[in-house]
Design goal:
The chain has helices at residues 6-12, 14-19, 24-33, 111-124, 140-143, 145-153, 171-183, 194-210, 222-226; strands at residues 72-79, 88-94, 100-106, 132-136, 157-161. By secondary structure, it is of the alpha/beta class. Strands 3-2-1-4-5 form a five-stranded mixed β-sheet, sandwiched between helices.
């Protein structure tokens, strides 16, 4: 975890730092003095084509109280390539635990890549008798007939879509994208063969799911959070000033 934030690093090193009588403020001062504070990166690449003939669904999770794992899955596609060698990462994340359930790396924005991520996630689904909402943007990859056929054939799996072009309607998916690109820097391998990129993504997601403490999980890892349903889920703060309400996911 080469770009893990200072708060999470302090949490992981707490016992050792306490023995050395180093508090949080002193710890951050040490990081700053050694140029170890992380400067956030800002990258944006459009991957959503919402101008298509396929059916669009209602937003079923707006203002929903999410109380358990596998109640809501969110999906998104993020760009990890470059102009001469495009590469896209399709992700499906559990909104409650922030565990990445399914993923796939592909050289194009095709529906097949998103389908592979969905099928991987469905294999990991534990309780198929409980209702599960699959939420995503209006991208053609999710609205096409092939993707919708798999959803319609899956027991108690329901579609939900963002109804505006506000990225914070899909805040969990956007946040996980940012973690993989800013902290794990999966996009720095854009010059390598796609098989190497796939290996890097696989290792990064495994570390993210099993080792990285997550603030919205009260510093539990996504896997730890996914194994229970008693902890109340934290919500992300609103960044859209035109909307005074906190995002429910």
């Amino acid at each position: 975890m080469p770009r893990l934030g200072g708060k999470k690093l302090y949490y992981l090193l707490y016992k050792d730092l306490r023995t050395l009588k180093i508090g949080r403020d002193k710890f951050f001062a040490i990081l700053k003095a050694n140029y170890l504070l992380i400067i956030p990166k800002r990258n944006y690449h459009v991957t959503t084509d919402s101008y298509h003939r396929f059916k669009k669904h209602k937003n079923l999770i707006e203002n929903m109280n999410i109380t358990r794992p596998e109640q809501v899955w969110v999906s998104d596609i993020t760009y990890i390539g470059k102009r001469s060698k495009p590469c896209y990462l399709s992700l499906i994340t559990d909104a409650y635990s922030k565990q990445i359930m399914g993923y796939n790396v592909a050289p194009s924005l095709n529906a097949e890549s998103s389908l592979k991520a969905l099928k991987m996630a469905l294999k990991k689904r534990k309780d198929k008798d409980l209702g599960l909402i699959h939420h995503y943007d209006r991208g053609i990859q999710y609205c096409c007939d092939e993707y919708q056929t798999v959803i319609n054939k899956t027991k108690k799996l329901f579609c939900s879509m963002t109804e505006s072009y506000d990225p914070y309607q899909n805040a969990v998916a956007e946040r996980v994208n940012g973690i993989l690109k800013q902290e794990f820097m999966v996009d720095r391998y854009k010059d390598y063969d796609i098989n190497i990129i796939k290996s890097v993504v696989k290792e990064s997601i495994n570390i993210y799911n099993t080792l990285r403490p997550h603030w919205s999980n009260y510093m539990l890892t996504p896997v730890q959070m996914h194994q229970q349903a008693q902890i109340e889920m934290r919500t992300y703060k609103t960044k859209n000033r035109s909307n005074p309400k906190a995002t429910s996911v």
